[in-house]
Amino acid sequence: MKKLMKVLSVVLLGVFLTACGSKEKTTATGEKKVEKKVIKLSTKFVEEEQSAKTLHIVANKINERLEGKVEIQVFTGGQLPIGKDSMEQVVTGANWISVDGLNFLGDYVPDYNAIVGPMLYKTFDEYLAMTKSELVKKLNSDAEAKGIKVLSLDYLFGFRSMLTGKEIKVPADMKGLKIRVPNSQLYMLTLEAMGANPTPLPFTEVYSGIQQKVVDGLEGSLMSIYGTKIYEVRKQISLTNHLLGVSGIVISTKVWNTLTEEEKTIIQEEFDKGALYNTGETVKLEEEYRKQLEGYGVKFNEVDTEAFNTAIVDVFSKFPKWTPGIYDEITKELKKIREAKK
Ligand code: G3P
Fold first, then answer.
1. With a 6 A CB cut-off, is 228 part of the ligand 1 pocket?
2. Confidence at 30, pLDDT banded by 50, 70, 90
3. Which of 134, 226, 245, 326 has the fewest CB atoms found within 10 Å of its own CB?
4. 193 contacts: CB under 8 Å, gap ≥ 6
5. Is the CB of 270 under 6 A from ligand 1?
């Protein structure tokens, strides 16, 4: 009987360990040890950028609270695949967390592109309220059905504007300018509508790209412009605020489902806390960075916002894969959000 109980408990422990995705290993001294589960987190952000700093804090906190059962390893600055390739790691079930633009999620659930479309939001809060809406919750469950568990859509890094060699006031000023954009159809179509010649390029190649005249400038947030030191090669910021710089944090549902309830709760809690912290730091630092950039000789220019708003109107009708009527749904939701804030 005793023997049977022992066999049973070993079998049960085995089932438990398989369920939480951890493996048991016997050491040289015959000691049984649970092997920790290592999850790689890949991001484009360089160490000097706040988003990278926040991700380190989040990962450290998770690793500390899970006491070695799960270890999240952060790889910054595109040391590991980013963008499309990073998403592919997630959907193929690798032990991987991808942190990148929502446009890459849009390759799997096209409507993600619609919720980060051009000129939609006036404030960070409006976007953050949108990510809590039923509309976006539905997108998250569509993503889950495709093997993508969304941990957060709230890692903001600021509204994106133009960084060029000349002042831009109206779309006509963009004519002939080769502007670096992330490799995304949403960005290509938006910048085209704004009057530029968009050129997709990895961010790591922009600094030399400007020096070698591959591109004339770029569009990006103050956090990116400051953190990557790209302001060293271009000095005119024109405040178009055309798109919101925001990262989605995703993991494979396959991997997620191997974690225990406790592990899932801790990971989710820390990413949620990290998002709040990251937004607070972004708001604070944007102001500080603007002053510092002005000190480095960067000029900030106001643009004719109405003219750019008009220029991008057609972008929303250029995505055949979007759910018909999605733009109207988004604007209705935004109206609700704005009214609730009054
Ligand atoms: O470090 C790069 C990051 O700040 C911005 O990247 O591709 O969104 O322009 P991207």
1. yes
2. confident
3. 134
4. 118, 311, 312, 314, 315
5. no
